Automatic annotation (TrEMBL):
Keywords: Protease inhibitor, Serine protease inhibitor. The keyword Nucleotidyltransferase does not apply. It comes from the Eukaryota. InterPro entries: Prot_inh_pot1, Prot_inh_pot1_sf. The lineage of its organism: Eukaryota, Viridiplantae, Streptophyta, Embryophyta, Tracheophyta. The keyword Acetylation does not apply. This is Uncharacterized protein.
Length: 70
């Protein structure tokens, strides 16, 4: 499952939509655009990549990649 319509939205808006549309997601994780992440697949996780560095406000940062389960 993916949410292409969330690109350009604020991180908190994206997280709310994801958790509303898929109640099985118990880990909606913010990550900076250039974060190095593991390749393991997790059916109850979504990474929300935002235009932000490690010390900024992820909830108000802009989503820059399509959030998807995994």
């Amino acid at each position: 499952m993916a949410w292409p319509e969330l690109v350009g939205k604020k991180g908190r808006e994206a997280k709310a939509v994801i958790q509303k549309e898929n109640p099985y997601i118990d880990a909606a994780i913010y990550a900076p655009r250039d974060a190095i992440v593991t390749d393991d697949y997790c059916c109850n996780r979504v990474r929300i990549f935002v235009n932000c560095k490690t010390s900024c406000d992820y909830e108000n940062a802009t989503v820059v990649q399509v959030p998807r389960v995994g």
